[in-house]
Design a protein that fits this description.
Elements (H helix, E strand, L loop, with lengths): L4 H12 L24 E4 L13 H7 L1 E4 L10 H5 L2 H4 L3 E4 L2 H10 L7 E3 L25 E5 L13 H14 L4 E4 L5 H7 L11 H13 L3 E3 L6 H5 L3 E4 L3 H5 L7 E4 L17 H5 L2 E3 L2 H13 L8
Parallel strand pairs: 1-2, 2-3, 3-4, 5-6, 5-8, 6-7, 8-9, 9-10
Length: about 325
Amino acid sequence: MLDLTAMRQYYEKLKNDWFNVIWGYDKFNYPKDLQDDCPDIVFFNAPYLLNRSGHQLPSRITTNYLTCYLPYGMHVSNEPGFHFENDYITACWLHFIDTRQAFDYCAKNACTNGANTVLSGYPMLDGYAEPRKPFGGLKLPENPVVVYAPHWSVETWHNTATFHIHAAKIMELLTANPTVNFVYKPHSRLAPEIHVRENRPDRTSVTYADYQEYCDNWRNSPNGIIVEDSSFIDLFKNTDCLITDRYTFLTAWLPTDKPCIFLMNPKGPKDPYKYYYGFIKPVIDSYYTVHTNDELLDTFNSVFIAGKDEKAA
């Protein structure tokens, strides 16, 4: 049965805040038929998660209801087919786009010519304008915070994910720096990706048992915690250094003006800049890119431990 504990808690919070909300799952945690509540508009934010059948079939949703696509992350990676040519995006009533560059690209190159697009900005970043609140759950609440946030796409065609390369070294950093909070914030799809591919020819070099052991060791360490919900702004506002290979965090981290160690896969794109839209190049240049564990260790010790942040704003 699907675990909807966090979603249920958020639902109850909305109810307590006097929002008129309806729970959309049955007693078995399966999505209810949308016809039960007859919505006028349906919003979705991740087209690859719409792989459902029956009453949740994407083609049925886009045919029967006005649909709006709100991307969960900013348009960063240079994947126009995914961003603009997906059938369920092109069939939408409205497609909200975050940057002028992505909006112009869609208008010039997509099959819709931008007919259903709205240049909306990226409202998720609005949280940076709110006063900073302490982040709960840290084992050393008065001490510095480092976040490790790996992407899910381990050993896939684009070879940009690096968990299988750098995870063990980052665990060593956690152990070697007991006065620093280390927060593990994996992409929500990482664990399922490793698990579902385990008995397939394209299985990852990391077994699911190894991954579970990694998480247990992190969770049981005196200075490590795991954060698995989808929010990140409040965490980032309390973080002193980010270690990541997640391209959606390239822009999400930028307002912090804190150092980012961007993990690059040595087997990744020969020209990494071509894998990202042009406006991302100066963002990448403002971070510390590393390819090997030795580079990671040297950069971490120099930039974070010694405080020699030469790229500080």
